[in-house]
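Sequence only, no structure available. Ideas?
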Amino acid sequence: MALAQTRWVMDRIRTYYSDLIIEDVVIRTKADIMQDVSLAGIGGKGLFVKEIEDALLNGEIDMAVHSMKDVPAEIPDGLEIAATPEREDPRDVLIAKDRRKLEELPRGARLGTGSLRRGLQVRNLLPDVEIVPLRGNIGTRIKKIETENLEGVILAAAGLRRMGWMRQITQFIPPEIMMPAIGQGALGVEIRRDDTKLKEMITVFHHPATWIEVGAERAFLKRIGGGCHLPIAAYGKIDNGILKLRGLIGSPDGRFIIREEITGRPEDGDVLGFNLAERILLQGGQAILNEITEESV
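Reply:
I predicted one. Tokens follow.
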């Protein structure tokens, strides 16, 4: 998946700069290697980008392509996300045995996902469901429907689209039912901050609306101070010149979910993200986060 995303960006660059020589460099991160441990248990999704950012800072590579949902709220000094191509479908999808939809799953169904965010929202919708933790690439996760005797797995629509596996999908889950991860469906191109020439070059595929929407979600994330080890979600969308930003915090068991939304001008996206986080924290979100933190100590 990471390689497919990188090559997609490389192809966009070649479209505009046909004489440019571009080489892809594969970096296996700690998160890629430790497939038998949950992301929360080894430090979160930030482990997908740390070694890559080190390579950028050391001059071993000049550009990195990330799934924005894997990028921590804080970017290392000397680096920046310089461009975001237009966002792919941000929704989650269900791939299910016998093509059953979520509402048709039997009681006690075993459902696979490696995401706390997905798990809590499924448990809130279907309290008797059994969540089975998953790691690995898309193909590995789909195969576990058979090898782990699962009713289905929940994955990101964007990944399946980029891999050309759309026919595998049983159901697209609306954001109103399952709020996407922060930055889900969006790619971010990270470079060294002082590389002004490269920054100018990659603006050719930069998508301003995606930048604003994901930026508002990341402002929410930054105020919460969390990552994939916390059960949070946010989704921003510009419609008719108005930015609507929705967010949630929930308990991992799905019993308690606090949802809120805020609207405003797109240019105020960072402020909207901060204010939405404040609202949710004051409505009980901070208490949920405190309880999770205490349990993990």
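The two ends are 34 Å apart (CA to CA).
Hope that gets you unstuck.
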